[in-house]
Design goal:
With 277 residues, this protein is α/β, with parallel strands linked by helices. It contains 9 helices and 12 strands.
Length: 277
């Protein structure tokens, strides 16, 4: 049996990934010896590099942007969540096959629970309709919100996600990002790229009128621009996505090692966060 387990996160860009530090802290808290690297891998070399890394003895890989859909198409065996999301962030070998899962949605739900943000019966407004939104919608739906409305700059993309995840007993709604909203959200989750507010993106003027709880998937050393906007508009409970990052990493770690890390062993003080979201 190998004493040292080898892991890596792959993507591009990858230089500022927090995953090596997070997983090292997990291993340290559990007394497990691991190596965990951040490796730059471009889309054009994805298949070749992943096979090479497993041939070299890596026990598991995390997959980040822009490779999550490539990993979905590449894996031999997919989890139910991966199939729903058409996205993968965790790879490992099992009986000669490359297995895949996505832990993003479950990681988000764990962090929402940690922060006492109850999804059940909540009216949720989801900002953005890209891969990040698609990766968390199934987990949100499993926790029985009253409704999910997707707002996106390109309405067609929001409509695609709403149609994909709607069911006879739960119809999701899609609206343009700048449109006034006709309900009072309990929770707003921002999945859009961090710089959208700097690019002059127009948000509904009444988006914060009900003082909803705010969760921004982005994170930095200080509040994200979206959090600052919400706070200045009266919202009280505003959180960034570092907790989700830690929780989804813990789920990957558990898949690879069969050990459940204590996510409290990782905090802001342990991590060198980007100065700007």
């Amino acid at each position: 049996m190998k004493e040292l387990k080898k892991f890596a996160v792959i993507g591009s860009p990858i230089e500022h990934s927090l995953s090596p530090k997070i997983h090292s802290l997990f291993a340290e808290s559990l007394g497990i010896k691991i190596s965990y690297e951040a490796l730059k891998v471009e889309e054009v070399e994805f298949t070749t590099r992943v096979r090479q890394l497993f041939d070299e003895g890596y026990d598991g890989l995390n997959v980040t942007l822009p490779l999550k859909e490539s990993a979905f198409k590449f894996a031999d065996s997919l989890s139910d969540d991966s199939i729903l999301c058409e996205s993968v962030n965790t790879l490992w070998m099992e009986d000669g096959s490359i297995c895949a899962d996505t832990t993003d949605g479950r990681g988000l739900m764990k962090d929402l629970l940690n922060k006492q943000l109850d999804v059940k019966d909540a009216k949720i407004l989801l900002l953005g309709a890209g891969g990040s939104a698609k990766a968390i919608i199934p987990a949100l739906l499993r926790n029985n919100p009253e409704s999910i409305t997707i707002a996106n700059r390109t309405r067609e993309r929001a409509e695609y996600l709403a149609d994909r995840f709607s069911s006879p007993d739960r119809v999701m709604k899609a609206i343009p990002l700048s449109a006034e909203i006709d309900f009072e959200p309990d929770l707003i989750i921002n999945t859009s790229s961090a710089g959208v507010l700097d690019q002059g993106m127009q948000l509904p003027s009444n988006i914060f009128s009900s003082q909803p709880s705010i969760y921004d998937l982005s994170y930095a050393t200080s509040n994200t621009p979206f959090m600052n906007l919400a706070l200045s508009s009266g919202s009280k409970n505003c959180y960034d996505g570092i907790g989700m990052l830690i929780e989804q990493a813990a789920l990957s770690f558990q898949i690879w090692t069969n050990e459940v890390p204590d996510t409290d062993s990782v905090s802001y003080t342990h991590l060198t966060l980007p100065t700007k979201a």
